[in-house]
Amino acid sequence: MIEDSTDGERRVWAVIKANATVDPLDDLVAHIRAVDAGPAVLPVIQEALFKIDWSRPTPRGKVGLLTALMLVAHDVDEKVARSISADLTSCGSCHPLFRQRLKSICQLTVENFQEYHVRGLRLFVSRDLLCRPRVAAYLNDWLEGLPEQDVAGIRRIYIVERKARKFWGEYLRVLSNITLVWRGWNAQSVRERLATEYTLYHEIGHHVHRHQGPGSGESEALADSYALSRFAKAHPLIGNGALGAFTIAFAVGKVRKNELPELDDYQEQ
Asked: Are 171 and 85 members of one domain?
């Protein structure tokens, strides 16, 4: 593969070079640029992978290289990624270490999410949530009042179920993705709904300030400041005064440290 032959080859080559560094930021940036190139990178990735002997786990770094290239292929086109994986393992000489890695990558699929488009953003709601249309409707309402420039650049918002997660929300700066945990609340669970809405504003605050989040006290304070401002604008009747202070204190207390409250705090679920 020639480094400066085509745009697709240049971007795949950047992924390969970034994989050899110790800086995960370089790896993520290269990943995004390669994915943004679209299907043009797929034949380049396939060619690069088929030039490598996968029958032996040595030399070191092969697992990382396989992972980096296959994740790009998977994010561009899951079906093509599964086809490449099948071709690599069909000959029978693929080492079990690489077989397992390929299996793990191909098991990740957006098929586990239902996609919606809200305010021009791609919203992925876990199929484990039975209230997916209602989730999308709430996200639409919450995002509607935000300035367009505040949400510009957000690539995806994932809505997942609670399970054993140790956070209510998370923002990954390099990928510009937000993950939001959906509590198991009903229509009468006002506290749950307000806290979930506040969490969304908090993570968007990280995006506005380009934080990695959760991070330093300063970055958390800036995200909180943004969230408090947007929350007050969205709820002018309760966003100020004693009731507003109580509501916001509730939300901040459950969100700022990204700690889950005890289940006993939410008997309404």
From this structure: no
Which residues, listed in sequence order, are joined to residue 198 by a DSSP beta bridge? none
**Count of alpha carbons within 13 Å of 89, Cβ hemisphere only?**
16
**What residues contact residue 54 under an 8 Å CB cut-off, 6+ apart?**
62, 66, 88, 93, 94, 95, 98
Helix, strand, or coil here: 210? coil
> At 98, which amino acid appears?
F
DSSP 143: H
Place of tokens 């032996």: 56
Report the number of distinct structural domains present in the chain. 2
**Residue 224's domain spans which residues?**
142-265
Q: What is the pLDDT of residues 127-148, one digit of tens each?
A: 988 889 999 999 999 999 899 9
Nearest-angstrom CA–CA distance, 158 and 119: 15
235 three-class SS:
coil
Shared-domain flag, residues 254 and 151: yes
Q: Which of 49, 26, 156, 149 is nearest to 105 (CA)?
A: 49
What letter represents residue 17's amino acid? K
What does the pLDDT look like over 245-266, one tens digit per residue?
556 665 555 444 444 343 233 2
Rounded Cα distance between 121 and 153, Å, is: 9
Query: Is residue 30 within 8 Å of residue 14, measured between CB atoms?
Result: yes
| Alpha helix (H) residue ranges in 22-131 | 24-36, 42-50, 62-76, 78-90, 96-107
